[in-house]
Amino acid sequence: MPGTTKPSRRSDRRTAPIRRAAGWLAPVVVIAIVAVLAILARPADQPAAPADGAAAAGSGGGQEENPFAALARRTPGDPLALGEPDAPIVIIEYADFQCPFCGRHARETEPKLVREYVDKGLVRIEWRDLPYLGAESTDAAAAGRAAAAQGKFWEFHSAVYAKERRVNSGSLDEGALRDIATRIGLNLTRFDADRGSTATRAAVLRDQQEATSMGLTGTPAFIVGDTPVIGAQPYEAFKQAIDEQLEGAK
Fold first, then answer.
1. The whole model's pTM is what?
2. In this predicted model, what pLDDT tens digit does every residue of 100-113 receive, in sequence order?
3. What's the CA gap between 218 and 137, in Å, rounded?
4. Alpha helices of the chain — where are they, by DSSP H?
5. CA–CA gap between residue 221 and residue 217 (Å, rounded)
6. How far apart are alpha carbons 222 and 95 in whole angstroms?
7. How far apart are the C-alpha atoms of 178 and 190, rounded to whole Å?
8. What contacts 115, CB < 8 A, 6 or more positions away?
9. 8 Å CB contact between 130 and 94
10. CATH topology for 18-139+208-249?
11. Are residues 11 and 213 in contact, defined by beta-carbon separation less than 8 angstroms?
12. N or C end of the chain: smaller count of CB under 10 Å?
């Protein structure tokens, strides 16, 4: 699929993706039972989305309820999120820190989304780890969580994606991750402890399982309110999905 990095392993067969027509938007995956799967897979300590804002986002008031609403966590103060918890639309981003297409999105598209929608209170972006490209992906995901514990996830995100990296080339090995942590001002002792903790690895695995339960096998992948968008699509693709849902919610 253009603009998406794909692994060689088979996807989870518990769900069967189907295509949804969305004009000239990217190919998307729509799974009718995704909300049920997400609820069943959600650990007891993970908060569910509020019934009011999350269910209404992108549903257009009176229209069919958004089947992806349960995936939006909307946790106040979440260091892996940008924007207000009660924003009308939540963009859930499944990504791998080694994925070149994720990097392209981070450099070219996400800043526009933040400027035009997040900063205006219309959109919230929630990060999900989908580290499937190798050991460096898993280690980088854990490092991102450790940076988040010190309130600097998005600084880590920007530093990793500042340039394109060859997959499993050593560009995100132990030394590289500690160098990034130093440059963004993290306490290295705490950083090392947090990224190696059982809780951190479990949180990364939870995100990965959420993605694979929906049949997502490549990154980046997004749920834009009620619209799945797969791949590093241009800003205009996200704008169309967001604007249509904002208009329908009026």
1. 0.76
2. 999 999 999 999 99
3. 13
4. 34-41, 53-56, 100-104, 110-113, 135-149, 153-160, 174-183, 188-195, 198-213, 235-249
5. 9
6. 9
7. 11
8. none
9. yes
10. Glutaredoxin (3.40.30)
11. no
12. C
